Amino acid sequence: MKLSILPVTLSTYVVLVVVNSSTFVDGLIKCKSLSKTNCDSKGDGICMWKNKKCKTKCDLFKGDDSKNCEKVKGCKLKGKKCKKKKKKEPKECGDLSTKKCGKRDDCVIIEDGSTSTCTPTVVVDDSDPPGCCTLTKRPGNQTEDYTCIDPNNAKTEYCVKAKVATARWMAQSLEWGTLSTFRADATNADADADADDDGSSGDVSPFGNTYSFADGPCGAGSGTPYFYGSDLDASFTDAAKNPSVSFTLTEASLKSSCVNRTEDLSACAITASGGGDPENPPCARVTLVGNFTLLTEGTDEYTYGKAALFERHPAMPNWPTDHEWLVGKIDVDYVWTIDFYGGANVFTAEQYYNSTDGNPIEAE
What distance separates the 2 farthest-apart alpha carbons in the chain? Predict the structure, then answer.
């Protein structure tokens, strides 16, 4: 680097920093690419060796030469001063486009019916007890609940958001529910001369089965329930024939022994005083209705769903290997929920999935 002093007036001088063109690569000075030897010899004073790396001295660009500041990789002009650029904090997965999401190792693209969501990949925190997520308090409060009982308020944006937030909280916080399918009736099928080839009588009836699930890693639920099952199980077999299913959750199933809760379960608990019950409206319940889909092994969503299930249910990896385990999910079409007095509420898949993005939700 050379210093040239040019007289402007009799009493004023301007100091110019003249940078050797050999230090520029593709229009930018890149000190980082220089070795320890070349850092001083070819950097022309713009570069310095520090902490085993060749780094840029942005503060050398002063006065009229500050216009060259941004020609140096890692420097940015702020006012009349050349300063080192601050590294941008990486965006949250949910703020990324599908294209950028695919380039991040810590994010994965999840298909929710007709929409795609960028979600954090599952990272198991060994410091927490297996199968336990640190729970936040259930959304809302009693004042909000009483406000939304009024039919004039029930369809407002405020009340829709409050109700849907509770449904999403349950999908993230609970560990099991009841998966309901349409089942071919096999009662007395062997004695029925008109039985179908699969041994059923041809009649169809609703069939509920307890199933563990996970909607994503702890603290980053997607709202979509994932399941780990086998064709040896009636529910997976039924869903293969008729994918229309529902999945019902109750707040009464929450494991209070797993986490430090900030509220009790008195609304759900059956006691001698008769104060609570799982059927008590303030004991929240939600039914997710949609189509059951099996995920293709090796895809990003299969890996995401399986990892979330294994994080939340540590026994699953030890289940018999000869069962040919499958990972399935429900693409939610609509949500039915009760979390307080005043009757049930039904919400669209769009309202359900958009409940955490901060955008206004229009009530129907």
Answer: 116
- Write the CB contacts of 228 (distance below 8 Å, at least 6 apart in sequence): 212, 306, 309, 313, 316, 325, 326, 327
pLDDT of amino acid 29: 67
Q: What is the helix, strand, coil percentage profile of the chain, to 5?
A: 25, 30, 45
Q: Which fold is adopted by the domain 122-353?
A: Pnp Oxidase; Chain A (2.30.110)
Residues 230-245: tens digit of each pLDDT: 999 999 999 999 999 9
Domain range annotation of the chain = 2-84, 122-353
Closest CA relative to residue 161, chosen from 147, 177, 140, 192: 140
Confidence at residue 67, expressed as pLDDT on a 0 to 100 scale: 65
* Cα(42)–Cα(83) distance, integer angstroms: 21
Helices (H), 60-156: 98-101, 142-147, 151-154
Nearest-angstrom CA–CA distance, 331 and 288: 9
Closest CA to 227 of 250, 209, 254: 209
